[in-house]
Amino acid sequence: MSDRTLAPLGRRLCPVVAHARHGAYDVVSVLDEGPAPDPGQFYMLAASERWGGGADERPFLPRAFSVLRRHEDGRLDFLFEDVGPGTRRLCELRAGDGLWLLGPLGIGFRRPEVGRRPLLVGGGVGIAPLAIWQDTLGADAQVLLGFRDARHAAGAGLLRDARVATDDGSVGHHGLVTDLLREELDGSCVVYACGPPPMLEAVRARCESAGVPAQLALESGMACGFGACFGCVVPTRSGYVRLCVDGPVLDAADLELVA
Amino acid sequence: MTPDQRPSRPGTPLSGGPRDQFLGLELAHPIINASGTFDAIAARRAFGDALLARFPFAAFVSKTVTLEPRQGNPPPRLWELAGGMINSIGLPNQGLAGYLEHDLPQLAELPVPLIVNVMGFTRGQVGELVAAFAEHEEVAALELNVSCPNVETGMIMGADPRETAALVAHVRPLTRKPLIVKLTPNCTSPGDVAAAAEAEGADAVSLINTLRGMAFDPRRPGIPWLGGGTGGVSGPAVRAVALAQVAEVRARVEVPIVGMGGVQNGRQARDMLHAGADIVAVGTESFRDPMAGARVAAELAESLAYSGIAPGPHGSRREPIAHNA
């Protein structure tokens, strides 16, 4: 019995079927015939054109992305924010383009123990795996999201009934998503979080002092996604682990600090 | 054991036979992996037993094993650059005892011959590692990673012909298994080093290892990006260097050559054979696609059939296929 949904061996070329803007973010949908991913699992993505070997020098390596949402017909949605040559290329994808896809990879979120109330905490583009997790958990899951400004907070519409915080106060609570966490957290919770490292560290520290279990979906630069390159390690209490095969979701208790 | 008890060198060039010979091993095709660019155990966790059914390489070279366990370098460990990447991984591994207990039994289940890559910080350490694998039947050959300093002399073992010769002379009597010396491109003359390795009984050489490189943090000017300070450049960016070094080494040695460096497709693998390699290793391209090895092998077969050049040992002496039909 495997601890994850296995990936078909080899990357596959999938057609892009839709593109939509959500404020600062792009959502790209591809039609995939692979297995349904576990929430929190990720894929290695590379555009079929102008990606390694083309006229452009970069991107060269594929990029790792958690899946935002899976539809019944096999469509997978990915959430991108243009922050560099790889994400820029992915944001440009439109219906009719091709996307190389390898996955689903890694270990996703584990279900809450019976009686524990799931609290989903996301920041920025890190809200992606929380959407598919909310789809799975249903109405029991409470969602808290933090963004820089209103343009980014438009991403909150990708999840249902989220409480929102923004750095500039333009939408929802003026402050950090961890302020909302402080209000909502109690001893019966289990926290699932994904976002920038300072946010994850604040969540980890908060949950530790409250004695609440937490699962953190981490990010790291990754060349391969299947354990080959050893590039994506993060320090844990038991030494370095590869996020791609031992994560990307780790128990907060295994981490001393999210750096 | 004496050198004449070693397995015999590979035979004459194949004339269009279905299989390739390398160090007496029957290979289904001439593509293997570069050490440290594919972890068959982790890949089996990700892809399941499909990996065994469709294993992408004709032989598997495992990641460098050292005597003691190593954590590896602090992150960040990767930097993407124009046509490739720099890695600063630092050879994390469980050490010899951990490898023998955990890795070797799993790697023995692979459907292809296993080549174990070893590295030590003294000749004595390399000797211990070589001797430890001498009686393990599941190990088909050993590859010596000589891209590290000998802490007793301060010299990079593979950067100086005398240093390399002394190392190979020390370990040669310790095993009957074929010994492959993995040459470093970070030296004055890979040809001299290869010739020294051959003279002391190396059965093959493999090249190139990564070229030393460096990158700076774009957000913190002057601060090196990689946790290890510098790292190794790989990918298509190094292919031209690899071709030239393989050709240089081919001119100096008779033993088989494993050619590698930025090979992404069959045509580039064919170029590597033309430069003088007997078989070709795929490295960084496997990061982009785990089945790259199988794809390159298929493209190479097509490319060779088209060009009328048969793959086989000793690239410089390869005979054209006779087209009688």
Produce a short descriptive summary.
Chain A has 259 residues and is α/β, with parallel strands linked by helices. In chain A, 18% of the residues lie in helices and 33% in strands. The longest helix of chain B has 16 residues.
Commentary on this structure:
The complex is a heterodimer of chains A (259) and B (325). Chain A has 259 residues and is α/β, with parallel strands linked by helices. Chain A is 18% helix and 33% strand. Chain A is built from six helices and 16 strands. Chain A has a seven-stranded antiparallel β-sheet with strand order 4-3-7-1-2-6-5. A seven-stranded mixed β-sheet of chain A has the order 11-10-9-8-12-13-16, sandwiched between helices. A two-stranded antiparallel ribbon of chain A has the order 14-15. The mean pLDDT of chain A is 95. Chain B is α/β, with parallel strands linked by helices. In chain B, the strands form three sheets. In chain B, strands 3-14-13-10-9-8-7-4 form an eight-stranded parallel β-sheet. Chain B has a four-stranded antiparallel β-sheet with strand order 5-6-12-11, with no helix packed on it. A two-stranded antiparallel ribbon of chain B has the order 1-2. In chain B, strand 5 and strand 6 form a beta hairpin. In chain B, helix 4 packs parallel to helix 5 and helix 5 packs parallel to helix 6. The N terminus and C terminus of chain B are likely disordered. At the A-B interface, strand 7, strand 14 and strand 15 of A face helix 1, strand 5, strand 6 and helix 9 of B.
